[in-house]
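Re: [ENG-882] Designed sequences occasionally contain unexpected residues at chain ends

Forwarding the minimal case from QA. Structure tokens:
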């Protein structure tokens, strides 16, 4: 049986189709359509008619792709980006009318749990912390834990941090403001106080984009194991903040995430610093993968 999940995030719509056989799940197709809702949002937080039409068109495109490879069921999920759209009802109604499918809007804890389920194998490494580098929110989960009590969802995603400063690129002062905001959010929400972790496991498209820039900057060859060090990530941030070639680096690697990349890098580096994690691993599994696993477990149950 083939199951498909379409994920609506702040910068894109993405599709994952997996073949489910008993307890086995095999990825079949992964597609992404860039749709930045920031470009279609009014100051009052409403998605424009053009933005809604773009979302509907992209979802229909991904549904067609899923059906073309034989997906028997298609599910649409959304995370923090949809929770912030004031006319969410209009978006959901338009998608329902065009596709017959309802958007399942995951709350922060459900989003964190899906990411945890997708990456719980990293518990084998020991003392690992998951960080979902989301859009408007970010989730954290102790991968050595076993339940929702060890998870947090905070409004410190790159899109939220981007709103702290003016323009596309932050200054050194803006970086300090972002770091302070991240630290305060973790402290206020009692996120693993006093804990240290050996590594961060980063998930999400922003994490993948960050690794692409990191690998390009440091000349790292392609590898299935995508790792970064906190020290080098700090050097990359300094370069992107002060160098004249930062626009070239970002446009060459992540043209659709130019405004998100530096805040994403600051978030990952600051969380790693707070928890004394020197190693960062970029996972190829995210919320969609976890949601599919939850669907499979529900069907098998």
């Amino acid at each position: 049986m083939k199951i498909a999940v379409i994920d609506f995030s702040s910068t894109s719509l993405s599709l994952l189709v997996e073949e489910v056989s008993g307890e086995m799940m095999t990825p079949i197709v992964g597609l992404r359509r860039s749709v930045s809702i920031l470009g279609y949002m009014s100051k009052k937080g409403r998605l424009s008619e053009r933005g809604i039409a773009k979302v509907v068109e992209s979802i229909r495109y991904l549904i067609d792709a899923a059906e073309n490879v034989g997906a028997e069921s298609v599910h649409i999920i959304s995370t923090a980006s949809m929770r912030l759209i004031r006319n969410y009802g209009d978006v959901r109604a338009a998608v329902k009318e065009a596709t017959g499918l309802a958007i399942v809007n995951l709350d922060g804890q459900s989003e964190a749990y899906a990411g945890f389920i997708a990456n719980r194998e990293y518990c084998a490494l020991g003392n690992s912390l998951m960080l979902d580098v989301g859009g408007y929110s970010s989730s954290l989960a102790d991968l050595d834990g076993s339940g929702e009590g060890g998870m947090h969802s905070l409004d410190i995603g790159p899109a939220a941090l981007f709103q702290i400063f003016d323009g596309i690129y932050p200054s050194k002062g803006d970086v300090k403001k972002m770091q302070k905001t991240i630290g305060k959010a973790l402290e206020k929400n009692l996120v693993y106080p006093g804990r240290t972790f050996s590594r961060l496991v980063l998930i999400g498209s922003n994490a993948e984009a960050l690794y692409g820039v990191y690998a390009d900057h440091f000349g790292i060859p392609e590898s299935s194991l995508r790792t970064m060090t906190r020290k080098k990530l700090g050097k990359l941030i300094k370069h992107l903040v002060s160098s004249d070639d930062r626009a070239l680096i970002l446009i060459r690697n992540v043209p659709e995430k130019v405004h998100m990349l530096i805040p994403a890098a600051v978030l990952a580096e600051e969380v790693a610093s707070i928890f004394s994690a020197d190693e960062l691993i970029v996972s190829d599994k995210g919320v969609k993968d976890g949601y599919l696993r939850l669907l499979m477990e529900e069907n098998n149950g």
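QA comment: On inspection the terminal residues look reasonable. The chain has two domains: 2-105, 111-282. Proposing we downgrade this to a documentation issue.
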